[in-house]
Amino acid sequence: MQYDPIKRSLGAVFNKTVFLRKLFYRLLNLLLLRSWHIRKELKRWIKPENPVILDAGSGFGQYTHTLARMFPDSLIKGVDVKEEQILDCNQYFLKLGLNNRVIFEKADLTKYVEEDQFDLILSVDVMEHIEEDVQVFKNFYKSLRTHGMLLISTPSDQGGSDTHEHGTDGVSGFIEEHVRDGYNIEEIKEKLREAGFSEIHARYQYGTPGNISWKLSMKIPITLLGISKLFFVLLPFYYLLTYPFSALLNWIDLASEHKKGTGLIVSAYK
Predict the structure, then answer these.
(1) pLDDT tens digits, residue range 62-81?
(2) Which of 104, 117, 125, 203 is 20 to 30 Å from 54 at the Cα level?
(3) Rounded alpha-carbon distances, angstroms, from residue 122 to 19, 75, 112, 204
């Protein structure tokens, strides 16, 4: 299944007004377990005064929005390889009146470096799309200030891309845009060390409770939307029934230590 077209269709619906866009961000924060884990790590971050932050692979801008709300004294730059998303986010954040401290630019992370510029770099569901990952990690390292933190959320190699078969053109399955199934926890640590990072912490997310929640809150509805857009009308009723269970499973996943999981949360310091 091609996941991006479904995301673009949903984005188009929720992009009609500022209220709907805010609602879209709020729903993503509620439904996506990775967002729960990311906020947990950000709350732990000992931030400097007036931090400068990079959202590396900003997409729809939902994590940029989260960063702006959590750190109102920050300057934030979002970069993405897709020009249409950059234009869209700049227009939306202008409407919010946040354009004085939030800006979006088109950038290729394999080439993008701003030396000693950022106190925090956030990269969510990005690295699994990039073949030259070590080069990107090196660019992140150069772009961080001393003691700066890199925070990564990415699928693990334990089914994080929900792949079951491999074709001649790479990974196939529920998500076809990934260049790798996911990271082995020791593999990503070693690649970050190669890039220059020394203090590295990695843990699993999407353990058994989180994996069940993901199927309820994301895989099943996205699969049905791929079959027919008419299911969009039924989505509110579907989530009314299933979200209490998903939220409980997300809370359990967030509060638990997992020996294995389909996702990874990684923090590395310069």
Answers:
(1) 999 999 999 999 999 999 99
(2) 203
(3) 25, 13, 14, 17
For the purposes of burial, counting CB atoms within 10 Å of the CB of 18, is it exposed (0-12), middle (13-18) or buried (19 or more)?
exposed
Burial of 187 (0-12, 13-18, 19+ CB in 10 A): middle
Tokens describing residue 247 = 């939220």
Termini Cα distance of the chain:
38
From CA 139, how far away is CA 60, in angstroms rounded? 23
Spell out the residues 6+ positions from residue 169 whose beta carbon is closer than 8 angstroms to its own: none
Please answer whether residues 38 and 58 qualify as being in contact, where contact means their C-beta atoms are separated by less than 8 angstroms: no
Q: DSSP character for 260?
A: S
Tokens of 2: 């091609």
178 in Cβ contact with 166 (< 8 Å): no
Strands (E) across 27-80 are located at 52-56, 75-80
CA dihedral (216, 188, 60, 107) in degrees, to 10, reads -160
Dihedrals phi, psi of 211, to nearest 5 degrees = -65, -40
Which domains occur in the chain, in start order?
3-269 (3.40.50.150)
pLDDT, tens digit (0-9, with 9 covering 90-100), for 6-20: 566 666 767 778 888
Please name the amino acid found at residue 256: S
Question: Whole-prediction pTM value?
Answer: 0.89
